[in-house]
Amino acid sequence: MAKAIMVQGTMSNAGKSLVTAGLCRVFNQDGKKVAPFKSQNMALNSFITREGAEMGRAQVVQAEAANVEPSVLMNPILLKPTSDNGSQVIVNGEAIGTMTADEYFKFKTTLIPDIMKAYNKLDVEFDIIVLEGAGSPAEINLKSQDIVNMGMAKMAKAPVLLVADIDRGGVFALIYGTLMLMDPEERSMVKGIIINKFRGDIEILCPGLDMIEEKTGVPVVGVLPMLNVDIEDEDSLSDRLISHTEVNLVDIVVVRLPRMSNYTDFNVFELIPGVSLRYVTSVVDLGNPDMIIIPGTKNTIGDLKWMRQSGLEAEILKKADNGTVVFGICGGYQILGKNISDPYGVEEGGVTHGMGLLDIETEFIEKKRTIQMEGTFGSIKGIFSVLSNKTLFGYEIHSGVTTFAEANSLTKIRPIHEEGAIMPEGSQNITDKMNIYGTYIHGIFDGEGIAAQIVSALLAKKGLSMDNVKTVDFVEYKKQQYDILADSVRKNIDIKKVYAILEAGI
Q1: Residue 238: predicted pLDDT
Q2: Torsion angle defined by CA atoms of residues 184, 188, 189 and 194, in that order, rounded to the nearest 10 degrees
């Protein structure tokens, strides 16, 4: 049976996911077979496993750090917000419906058997399981129905490390308040405190560490500095989405839709010298980019209407007509089409006119398509003709079925892990002025050399070149980042103490 340890936080964005990934990497480097586990995750960024199951990307990152294949067992429940008060509920990789917050609160404890079935399968396959909590364990209004923080720690019999973010201030109050709002049994399960995102002189911090240990009886096992490491983070709180990047030689803009999903599709562009990747929500911020990307979304029709109301649709249509490249991924691909029909009420029902930049029509069906794909770009026209026949890989995750002219298809793909013929996919609309592309494939830019070729083509369109634009080995780059994270965890956390906590259990 596996040894278990759990990472919880004093608040959202305290650094639970990153610390979990770091511990997974450290244990893997030490020769252990490690699995991450989060019973319930709420996120719009998701991933499709080889079996076609949908899971949160945070656990995919942690599995990569642990050097194991992602499995839906690592995240049996995924909530994907569809509105301010509703989420699609995904259990064991499959959507079971959409619920309001109140409906799900009353329903979620019925999922405990699913949670424990997944956990128990990992328990017999791995040496160590590193669990992650969600938000804060001190949400006293939610404790009676808790299945992801102390409730999960009790079910897994896992000792807890409590992570606190010092960067936002009030770290000692957060630690003390969190522990004092726990009942005595829960408090006894917290075996160590990790202070995260520290800047400055550690000697100045030490008196506070001594005092918080004295007041809580819980040892501080480490102080992690503010890390300069490039690892995917949770979607809604990512600094990538709120930072105002200055315009660079090649300017790529992503429309930050209200229900945007899988923004990690574009991270690879940040690794290329001379490229700015900006997320925008208004016409004023749009500027004059070289390429506009409309990303995936959990609510295609609602986000299309938002683009219409905000003026972004009209401005993008104008720029497309003047030669700006427009690229749609998944829901963004659907938005670029002529019509989106929703006969089963998957989103809002009825028929909605799209932007009309691609000659496609989409109809929502009740069953979601979730599958990993591989293949090549087809015969690409226009500015990205250099991509023709280049190898690609990725995954599809969408409810719509899209009809398109095969002559205008963008890719030639087939399923990776099951039988299936090569088939055309995606669409392009190339005229003397326009360069419009769309696809359902998430991760399409991650293939070797694809992002660099796109950047080179955008430069050539401006009569420029960049000799130092290099092919980015994205997989190798991520491995390097996990090792940097592990080095920092070893340097700043008492790993011997963590192993002792792991061995002792509760």
Answers
A1: 59
A2: 110
Confidence band for 244, pLDDT divided at 50, 70 and 90: low
Is 24 considered catalytic here? Answer: no
* Residue 417 among the catalytic residues: no
pLDDT of residue 236: 46
- Specify the pairing of strand 360-377 against strand 391-404: antiparallel
Q: List Cβ neighbours of 345 (8 Å cut-off, separation of 6 or more).
A: none
| Spatial distance between the Cα atoms of 428 and 380, rounded to a whole number of angstroms | 8
**What are the start-end ranges of the E strands in 226-385?**
250-255, 260-261, 275-280, 291-294, 296-297, 325-329, 339-342, 350-353, 360-377
Q: How many percent of the chain have pLDDT more than 90?
A: 82
SS3 annotation, 448-483: CCHHHHHHHHHHHHCCCCCCCCCCCCHHHHHHHHHH
Candidates 277, 262, 282, 425; CA nearest to 331 is 262
Which two structure tokens, joined as six digits, stand for 388?
A: 């023709």
Give the C-alpha separation, 82 to 61, whole Å.
Answer: 24
Q: Which amino acid is at 355?
A: M
Each residue's pLDDT tens digit, 33-91 = 999 999 999 988 899 999 999 999 999 999 999 999 999 999 999 999 887 888 999 99
C-alpha distances (whole Å) from 484 to each of 18, 269, 475 are 12, 21, 15
Q: Which of 206, 244, 330, 353 is catalytic?
A: 330
Kindly report the pTM of this predicted structure: 0.82
Instruction: Give, rounded to a whole angstrom, the gap between the first and last alpha carbons of the chain.
Output: 15
Catalytic residue among 206, 244, 417, 442: 442
Given a contact cutoff of 8 angstroms between Cβ atoms, the answer to whether 420 and 404 are in contact is no
Residues in the chain: 506
pLDDT of residue 7: 98
Residue 468 clears pLDDT 70, i.e. is over it: no
Averaged pLDDT of the chain: 93
